[in-house]
Amino acid sequence: MPDSLNLINVSRHFGNTKAVDNVSLDIPPGQFVGVIGRSGAGKSTMLRLINRLIDPTEGEIRYGDRVVTQLKGKALRDWRRDCAMIFQQFNLVDRLDVLTNVLIGRLAERGFVSSMLMRFTDEERTMAIQALDRLDLVPQTLQRAGTLSGGQQQRVAIAKALVQQPRIMLADEPIASLDPANATLVMDGLRAINREDGITVLVNLHTLDTARAYCDRIVAMRDGRVMFDGSPCQLTNDVVRDIYGTEGLQEFNEAATSTQKVAVMA
C-alpha cells in the first residue's frame, strides 16, 4: 500500500530569513495538493526540501518508514527517483530529441557506464513512447526539444518524470510562463496521472481558479508558514482576504486576469 508523506516541524533558514518556518503537513497517498501564495512565500523552498535538493535547518520529512531527511548516497538517489520534480524552466536538453529527453528520466535506474553512454532498452523506449502518448506528444517524438512550444516542453518534462515511475510528483510553478490553453493541457496531464496512476501530486500555483479547479486540497503559505490547509470549497475569497489582506486577493485576481489577456493575444 502506498505511503503518506509527512513534514514534521520543518524549517529552512537562509541567514536571518525563514524561507520555510515550522511547517507540518500530512499528505495521504494519491492526493492532488495545490500550494498557493505570493512570490517569496516559501512554496518552492518547501518542494525542494521534500525532494532533498536542499536540506532543512530543522525538522523531519518522512515517507512511510523512510526518514527522507537522513537519506544519503544511493538511498537519496532512489528517493529522488521516487519523488520526481518538474520545474518551471522545463529542464530539457534543447539539442536532443524529445524521446531522448524523456528517456533521461530512466538514468536513475541504470549503472554509471550505461548512463554515460545513454544506452536504453527497447522496453524503456516503449515506456517513453507510452508516456508521450498519454500527453499527446507522439508526433513530436523525434523533434528537437528546443523547437517545441513552452507548453509542449512542459509536457515532455512531465513524461520524463513519469518514466521514473515515481510515487510522488512535485511541480514547481509548471504553468507560470504558459498561456491558458497550454496551461490547461499541462494541468490536465498532471490530473490524469494523479487519478489513473494514483501518484501523489504537489503543485505550486499562482492563481486561485486553477487551484480550485484541479486540486483535492489547497495549502496557502505566507512568510514561510502554512496559513490555510483545506478543501477548495473552503478557500473562499473571504478566507483569502483574511489570510493575505485585500491586496493579496487583488494580486491573485490580477494574475488570473493577466493570464486571460495572454490567451486573447495568442
UniProtKB/TrEMBL annotation:
Highest taxon of the lineage: Bacteria
Descriptive protein name: Phosphate-import ATP-binding protein PhnC
EC class of the enzyme, as a word: hydrolase
GO cellular component: membrane
SMART domains: AAA
Molecular-function GO terms, alphabetical: ABC-type phosphonate transporter activity; ATP binding; ATP hydrolysis activity
PANTHER family reported for this sequence: AMINO ACID IMPORT ATP-BINDING PROTEIN (PTHR43166), PHOSPHONATES IMPORT ATP-BINDING PROTEIN PHNC (PTHR43166:SF6)
Gene name per UniProt: phnC_1
Annotated ranges, domain ABC transporter: 5-248
Organism: Pseudoruegeria aquimaris
Keywords, in A-Z order: ATP-binding, Cell inner membrane, Cell membrane, Hydrolase, Membrane, Nucleotide-binding, Translocase, Transport
InterPro entries registered for this protein in UniProt: AAA+_ATPase (IPR003593), ABC_transporter-like_ATP-bd (IPR003439), ABC_transporter-like_CS (IPR017871), ABC_transpr_PhnC (IPR012693), MetN_ABC_transporter-like (IPR050086), P-loop_NTPase (IPR027417)
EC number per UniProt: 3.6.3.27
